[in-house]
Design brief:
single chain, 296 residues, mainly alpha, 13 helices, globular
Length: 296
């Protein structure tokens, strides 16, 4: 991948890594489904306004909105609901490890259903090394309860599989304006999540949130969703969906780093070693260093 793409990938990991911090502040006072709905709805409204201000028109044909609907289901509604349900009974550490299987499923799906994005030994080895880095970074203790809550663990794995198929589906958006694609899928996601929020956990049945919690939802919507998805679909066009979902490996290090900088959390030797393994795995996927050594 070009250096610009790696820079965008790092920026995207920071935006999505920050969502862990914003979520922590928001869900302490606001119902989970209300946080998810507020996140996607406010992001959708923001991107619609930006699209209008910049002259980017959303398509009006049924085929395009069908594509947005499927993308919203695979990329937002299904994985968000599965992860929220799964994390009610399993810890965040195990959930983040299960979520880090997303690139593995992405490579498998692309290998099976595309002709131009086949898995290579170098890519497979790099992804395995980066996944090991996530396990080391989060801590092997997180794996201690594997199997105790099988359905919840399968739900988190199901979210990773859904992300893998969303990467395949996103191939059809190449050449379309990233703002339009991001706004379209978020509009569809908002329309699908609204009934669930109203029926299962309406915000008006809870005490009014503090300004900190409300601002956390705004940050989730504007930074971790609106800006992040524009960057995500821009990367899809630049380097392809299989490379773009490698960002999943970079989200745990970003979350750990933000916790260290913002919350003053301790940075352990295991976390540093895990980050190093992730970098090594991504370097193997990129292949640039290997080619230089081969030429030397």
């Amino acid at each position: 991948m070009p250096l610009l793409a790696w820079g965008m990938l790092l920026a995207l990991s920071g935006l999505w890594g920050g969502s862990f911090l914003f979520n922590r502040l928001a869900v302490a006072e606001i119902p989970t489904l209300s946080v998810v709905f507020g996140r996607v709805a406010l992001a959708a409204l923001t991107l619609l306004l930006v699209a209008r201000a910049t002259g980017v028109a959303l398509p009006r044909d049924r085929a395009s909105w069908r594509d947005y609907l499927v993308m919203g289901i695979l990329n937002n509604v299904l994985p968000f609901c599965l992860i929220v349900w799964g994390q009610k009974t399993i810890g965040a550490g195990l959930a983040s490890i299960l979520n880090a299987t997303t690139p593995i499923f992405g490579v498998i799906v692309a290998h099976l259903f595309t002709a131009d994005d086949k898995a290579t030994p170098a890519k497979a080895a790099g992804i395995a090394l980066a996944f090991l880095g996530v396990v080391v970074l989060v801590g092997p203790d997180a794996l201690g309860g594997v199997g105790d809550h099988l359905l919840a663990e399968l739900a988190c794995l199901g979210a990773a599989v859904s992300y893998g198929f969303s990467a395949l589906w996103s191939r059809r958006f190449r050449g379309r304006p990233p703002i339009a694609t991001a706004a379209g899928q978020l509009v569809c996601s908002s329309l699908m999540l609204a009934p669930a929020m109203v029926l299962l956990d309406p915000i008006w049945t809870h005490p009014a949130p503090s300004p900190t919690a409300a601002l956390a939802v705004v940050a989730l919507a504007l930074l971790s969703t609106a800006v992040a998805y524009v960057l995500f679909f821009r990367l899809n066009t630049l380097v392809g969906p299989t490379n773009t979902i490698l960002v999943t490996f970079l989200i745990p290090p970003s979350a750990v780093f933000l916790g260290f900088v913002v919350l003053g959390e301790r940075l352990t030797l295991e976390q540093v070693a895990g980050m190093a393994l992730i970098v090594a795995g991504l370097a193997a996927v990129d292949g640039r260093l290997a080619r230089r050594f081969a030429r030397a």
